[in-house]
Amino acid sequence: MRLTMIGSGYVGLVSGACFADFGHTVVCVDKDERRIAALEQGEIPIFEPGLEQLVKTNVRQGRLTFTRELAGAVQTADAVFIAVGTPTSDGGRHADLSYVYAAAKEIAANLRAFTVIVTKSTVPVGTGDAIEKIIQEARPDADFAVVSNPEFLREGAAIEDFKRPDRIVIGAEDVRAREMMAEVYRPLSLNAPPILNVSRRTSELIKYAGNAFLATKITFINEMADLCEKVGANVQEVARGIGLDNRIGAKFLHAGPGYGGSCFPKDTLALIQTGRDHGAPVTIVEAVAQANEARKSRMADKVIEACGGDLTGKTIAVLGLAFKPNTDDMRDAPSLTIIPKLIDAGATVKAYDPEATEQARPLLPGVQFVSGAYSCAQGADALVILTEWDAFRALDLAQLRELMADPCIVDLRNIYRSGEMKRHGFRYEGVGVASARPA
């Protein structure tokens, strides 16, 4: 099939490359001239495992192309996917739909035969109706249908998620549109993912509800971690004990410094505002968003307390800056709250991340960025693990102990064990687990 992807950011580029790998002919459209030029040269603007090779393979085989010209890409497409950004706007309450609506207007001007217009962007309930109205008003003669087809991609595992999804949600009112979407996803038939055909508004809400629920699980286990520290319990064992209940499940029960990234912070706020706008407040989600913001600040306090309550003149080493491993995404990363607070408390901060350094540099002024974990630890009065990259899971603890000025580790991801750290002579602080002091 002939597919057009408007937007070549994270969702658009991953989706476009994967659709091309299915055998479809895909054109990715973006107004950013430098981005298109880079993509045409095989340069990928984001870090996502496996994406660079996937793009290069499908470009070489002629199934994936990039352009700034929307008109021709829409005129020849069977389906046009809108995959532009929907950042938070209006004081952090609403999703900014200006890019979505601008895309809809440009699509309307270039429609020829029957075309399915698909929202891949995460949008509030009712956005599909608004897109439909925009196109109908601009082109009363156009033959089209608007579909909601939300993405459920985890950064760091997006290609696997796209090709082996838990489910495919298609929100459509038009039978022809449902048939075309079934054909778009037909190459996945061997994997037999459940295809959930629902109304367009239901589809839009599924995306927000799913992310809000996962954010709630994360926030719940983080609060249990705080309680564990007070009562002498172990949050990892608590998580395992409740996660084995198949009504709860083990995923997203890992205590840490709070959620971040491109989806959870933005989508929880948008769902909160949707509830308020329609007189059905989602008070649980409101509490989740508030608790998550407060948690990031508390994790900075945890580091300060581990260093005796005073960071004046001390050097803090930070391992990990991205909001999660296997991505360079810094959006709403806990590091953006924690590190400035450490600097304000008087610390000199050195930091290392395997992929996110260049993205972090303009966001964290005053930080000394280094090229490796051990150079980061050199002379540090404390080492803070903020992102659980695999490269940090098996550090040479003897070498680390020798490099540091003071053997203090604050592990905000619980990737080490307190007993092991004690044997190596470290003072160790995890999250919701026992602290350790060397004998």
CATH architecture of the largest domain: 3-Layer(aba) Sandwich
Low-confidence stretches: none
Indicate the CATH topology of the largest domain.
Rossmann fold
- Binned strand content: 5-15%
Compute the number of strand runs: 16
Question: For the residues shown, what is the average pLDDT?
Answer: 95
Helix content: 40-55%
The count of helical stretches stands at 17
Distance between the termini: 67 Å
Please give the largest β-sheet: 6 strands, parallel
CATH superfamily of the largest domain: NAD(P)-binding Rossmann-like Domain
Q: Order of strands side by side in the largest beta sheet?
A: 3-2-1-4-7-8
- Give the CATH level 1 class of the largest domain: Alpha Beta
Structural class: alpha/beta
Query: Radius of gyration, Cα only, in angstroms?
Result: 24 Å
Tally of structural domains: 2
What is the overall shape? Answer: elongated
Description:
- The protein has 439 residues and is α/β, with parallel strands linked by helices.
- It contains 17 helices and 16 strands.
- It has helices at 10-22, 33-40, 51-60, 70-75, 98-109, 127-138, 158-163, 175-184, 200-231, 235-243, 264-277, 283-306, 335-344, 357-360, 373-377, 397-403, 418-423; strands at 2-6, 25-29, 64-67, 79-82, 88-89, 94-95, 115-119, 144-148, 168-171, 195-198, 315-319, 348-352, 368-369, 382-385, 408-411, 427-429.
- Helix 1 packs across helix 3 (51-60), helix 9 (200-231) packs across helix 10 (235-243) and helix 9 (200-231) crosses helix 11.
